[in-house]
């Protein structure tokens, strides 16, 4: 039976939009998509079939992710002058997440839906307890609930101490870190020269400084660096023995001031190939040789991206360690072992994403928190991951004809609007300083609500069909 058209809206549409509003508003603080909440809403309230509900959930998440990424791209790391989004984590984790979706899609087809939902409920329950415990610890560290109350009072919105450390452009095209809460003391601006193949490049560095005040969110080691913006990738080829260590450190700091173009380009290419292979699967007969080539072709497609990303992060860390680079809180010191172990663990997010049909942000976020990544960085990084995943899924489902063309654009715009307004309100009322506990509370609440909604959906399914747990599927129906 076809679903009713969008117009006119009825009470079920209103109830679904109200529930989605709560989910999107809470998820906006943590950068996660909230697919574990939206999917049951669209199935139970709007009465869509599973594939249509998955398509609509991805469209809603995509709208919210775009708004989250737009806000995150304007912010800086809480401890050092670099972008808030950790692109190295995205490069290392997303290829194996894509690999996990292959396994998850097989499980989605073979296992009964109610079994999939019970597995997700158990996983979400464990993650919710762990994340909520960590969020409460952060709240206590930051001063408890009075910390949030202080930021919601009008007197704190215009506080002169509520300053950030944006990257600004100084004289002669130089990038400098400006911090209104600290005093910059130049000790030596005499340029150092690096000679490579006859080329002379000039770099200067200001002394590290320690920012600490009674109203600061965190006590952290900020550094201020002044450098030429003509970064050159060949600098990594200079052996540390041939270059003064302090010059190498300065150059590395300069390279961190902005995102190098090849990182988002590589991820875009990776996801574009995934979408093409996914669409191609539907163009051939299921179970045929071509079907298996296209299905398993994801593995050799994403493997080079993972290997190159792994080589990059290990080499980067080794260079920094040799030169005495000042690692900041949350910086991961990648080794041969943990650069494989953590991505493999993160592939679990891909498996769950393939089973549920969502972006998997609620699973990626706790894993990044376990790495010690600051919550604000986790929120921004997961939002970027979710944008890639939901965009590729939405495009594929649209091409395959599963996206309702009336509800899809509305929910996409609705997701973007609610997330944008929530982020704007948060920046207005909480000020420009960042609190680490709010993103963690958001992630914990989303996982908890996902546990409840997925459990409710499983209960409804079992009550309507007690034999639902025995209905196993086939790869090719």
Descriptive tags:
477 residues; alpha+beta; five-stranded antiparallel beta sheet; two-stranded antiparallel sheet; 16 helices; 7 strands; globular
Condensed summary:
The protein has 477 residues and is an alpha+beta fold.
Secondary structure category = alpha+beta
Low-pLDDT segments: 154-226, 228-233, 235-240
Principal-axis shape equals: globular
Seen as an oligomer or otherwise, the chain set is single chain
Mean pLDDT: 75
Number of strands: 7
Helical residue percent band: 55-70%
Distance from N terminus to C terminus (CA atoms, Å) equals 20 Å
Main pleated-sheet profile: 5 strands, antiparallel
Order of strands in the sheet with the most strands? 1-2-7-4-3
Number of discrete helical segments: 16
What is the CA-based Rg, rounded?
A: 24 Å
What pattern of helices and strands is seen along the backbone?
A: HHHHHHHEEEEEEEHHHHHHHHH
Strand content: 5-15%
